[in-house]
Amino acid sequence: MMILKLGFRNIMRNKRRSILTGLAVGLGLAAMILVNGFWKGMLANMIDSAVSNYVGHAQIHHRQFGESHEVQYSLDPSSELFQKLKQNTQIEVISKRVIALAMVSSSQESLNAIALGIIPAEEKEISLFDDRILEGHYPENENDLMIGVQLQKKLSVQLGDRIVITVSEANTGELNQELFRVSGIFGTGVKDMDEGMILVHQRKLQQMLSISGVHEVVVMFSDLKTAELNAPFINSLSTKDIKAENWQELVPQVVGIAKVTDFSMGIMGIILFILVGQVILNTLFMSLFERSYEFGVLRAIGTKNRELYLMICSEALALSCLSIILGMIIALIVGGYWSVLGVDYSGVQFGEVTFTEKIFFKFSLEQFTLYPTSLVLFTVLVSLYPAWKIVRIKAAEALHRSL
Amino acid sequence: MEHVFQLENVSKVFGEGAVQVKALNSINLEFHRGEFSALIGPSGSGKSTLLNIMSGLDTPTTGDVFLDGINISEMSGNKLCDFRRDHIGFIFQSFNLIPVLTVKENIEYIMLLQGVAEEKRLQRVEEILERIGLKGFNNRYPNQLSGGQQQRVAIARAIASQPSIILADEPTANLDSKTGTELIDLMAQLNADYGTTFIFSTHDQKIMDRARRLVTLEDGKIVSDKLS
Ligand SMILES: Nc1ncnc2c1ncn2[C@@H]1O[C@H](COP(=O)(O)OP(=O)(O)OP(=O)(O)O)[C@@H](O)[C@H]1O
Ligand SMILES: [Mg+2]
Asked: Does residue B161 belong to any structural domain of this protein?
């Protein structure tokens, strides 16, 4: 007990040095926490962008549709699949989509786009379109059409203008044309959507394609956690003809980024620990060796190696406790600031994912448990080296040197 | 009378080659229980070196040191530590005390290492402080004491473990004459009361006057060994 007390009191002998060391090490810890929290925030943002902009927590397709995108491969809404989906009470939204490659023609221009046949009430719950309507409204009438802002510019059309949509029918491949009116213009900030998508009524598109099924079923749970818990359920929906996928399979790049993140956190951790080790070693060597006479006295009066180790390690323990307290305070203040105000990266594209929201710092338990404790353990471990050096000094020499 | 310390042909050489210093040269010496003796001699004659070797803080280059008949070179490091802790008290010229510990804690320290129970420790601290005339100084830190008071606490610490021998390397060198005399009185009293062996190294005439035996060293050799 007194040995521990000695350790703690010894770091207060040179307050300035201890505080500077504590600050340096604490800043390292804070940097680690902040980078981690920022990455976490960014990942959450990315997943959120990926999932809630369009993809959803899970998607179900006809296996062949996934490969060929031929419109005859559709899912029958009266099939067993939809029964199963309805029975899962944790599912919040199911949106059915009809997807077809279409030619979009205005009086000025003809361009290719993806026609999305939706049921507005369902789709509103999932994708970003309804939040990002620049003008007009969702398709309400059979011949309404909502168009991406970039596509609208290229086609030089305005709200209320007429547009001709051409699709090829299922099975026969015969072309089918219909006249639509621009009822709304959306700008999501995601290039692929704004440049190449139009939204029309599902029934209308089904008629044009002469199909009765849908191509894509999007499932949303209440949150990501619930989605993860239900991943096995989703997987169980797959059959010979049906392919059901969770968001991780739908946006593998996000999962990839998460892995890269973990890896770079690891590298950063190692670099940080090396730096921290350096700082701690320097400080300990300085403060221990200027006290070598004292260690001579301690030895002379019967202090054993074990007790000297304990004393020096407790000093390192005290120093690291001071450091992590300072570090956590810094991290709390800066992280707290960022977690409320966020950093605006919206519109920036990163690994095929576009941020559509600010990035908020995300606190997590490990930042304030795992990181500090490993720092403390590491510091104590590192202190064994100077302790070993001190223990090896002969008492007689230590006493002689300073006389 | 039983031998406490026995040195046989002890030599100590520091450094190597051209810078070799022969600090001790074939020393044969015995100290007995209850002695109040002083090692004297010019600076650099080897007094401190001899004390360090006697206590096992340093090892002789050649020769043997026996403590109560046991050759200390045959003791393991930990055993020697225990021996020093339990049987030998140290007083140095200065900076004896651990600056971050209070007077009470400095005195308590060895007893803690010895595993003495708390109640007993505190009782002894009180007794000793009373004995050395520093009652009520328990919670002072060393830098809040005068040089003489610090040396008294050093004595207190040295006797806390109730050792049979106290080695004191120039304990009065940094003190004024009056304070030095008080300190010597205190040690002589302890010697008389408990039979604690005191071996000093000193230049201080006051100690030489009081010592019952004077061993004079010159260039690492004993040149005289007189009882007074
Ligand atoms: N650790 C050491 N390394 C090298 N030389 C040493 C060491 N300790 C002592 N010496 C040398 O050994 C000789 C004896 O030194 P010692 O300290 O024993 O003398 P002393 O009689 O105590 O002197 P003083 O009265 O000044 O304290 C001196 O020449 C000293 O320089
Ligand atoms: Mg000396």
From this structure: yes
